[in-house]
Design goal:
- This protein has 273 residues and is mostly helical.
- It has a single domain, classed as Orthogonal Bundle (MetI-like fold), CATH 1.10.3720.10.
- It is 72% helix and 0% strand.
- Helix 4 crosses helix 8.
């Protein structure tokens, strides 16, 4: 009886916490189907009294939102490709190759994760400006094609792979790169999926850096475009909520598809050092 009571209390707390966390998203979705007058009405209502899809039409037709989505999609895909290539190769080198100063170099690289972005964003902007990349895809993609967290996560997974597999593959005539793509990558798939999810989310939600290096509407990603909906007292709140709904929907779908791999990746990342 005591066990059942404890279990009921735990589930009650978890359900309450889940509902509390979902309330902002439910409010956003509800407001996106309201009129401007109803969105500003006091006291507020959770269910729209005058259901309308006009906010979504405004976002899709009168604002450059499809262009913002296109830019964010291109940036996310190419940044992800760069991150996966650099992370796989670097983690493979740190896991399977022996060279002087390997551990020191790896620890020095990990220490860079503690440096906040505002510290190096100005020097990075100067470099991008000198290269003539302002208001181009190069500025949005190239600086973020290396992810230290991705290298760390893949290295931890690769070090849990038995060394015998590597020795057997080399004896059978397998090259080192073929061993990486044919043997290692299938074994570290959960880590790759986790890195892909977090990198896409990071690229999709990037705001400060794209705001600095873009000048024209055609190069603005979705978060920068979303900020232009907020204009003080003239803000169209239903359109803002509709744009926010469109913005987070792909990320929610992506997360629910890959949540199993994310949990598996974190549960295995510290098995072997």
């Amino acid at each position: 009886m005591r066990y059942k009571l404890q279990k009921a209390i735990i589930y009650t707390v978890l359900i309450f916490g889940a509902i509390w966390m979902l309330l902002p998203f439910l409010w956003m979705l509800s407001t996106s189907f309201k009129t401007q007058a109803e969105a500003l009405r006091m006291p507020p209502t959770w269910i729209p009294q005058h259901f309308t899809t006009m906010p979504f039409k405004i976002v899709w037709e009168k604002v450059h939102f499809p262009q913002y989505i296109y830019v964010s999609t291109i940036v996310s895909l190419f940044t992800l490709a760069g991150v996966l290539i650099t992370s796989l190769l670097a983690a493979y080198a740190f896991s399977w190759y022996e060279f002087p100063g390997r551990e020191q170099m790896f620890m020095a690289m990990l220490s860079l994760m503690m440096v906040p972005i505002p510290v190096y964003v100005v020097p990075l902007y100067i470099i991008v400006q000198k290269l003539g990349w302002i208001d181009t895809f190069y500025a949005l993609i190239v600086p973020w094609t290396v992810n230290i967290f991705g290298i760390f996560l893949l290295r931890q997974h690769m070090r849990s792979i038995p060394r015998d597999l590597y020795d057997a593959a080399i004896i059978d005539g397998c090259s080192k790169l073929r061993f990486l793509f044919s043997v290692v990558m299938p074994l570290v798939k959960p880590a790759i999926v986790t890195i892909a999810i977090f990198d896409v989310i990071g690229s999709w939600n990037a705001f400060m850096w794209p705001l600095m290096v873009t000048n024209s509407d055609k190069m603005r990603p979705i978060q920068v475009g979303l900020a232009y909906f907020a204009q003080g007292e003239t803000t169209n709140y239903p359109a803002l909520m509709a744009a926010s709904t469109i913005t987070i929907l792909p990320l929610l779908i992506l997360f629910f598809i890959a949540q199993k791999q994310i949990v598996e990746s974190y549960s295995r990342s510290g098995l072997k050092e």
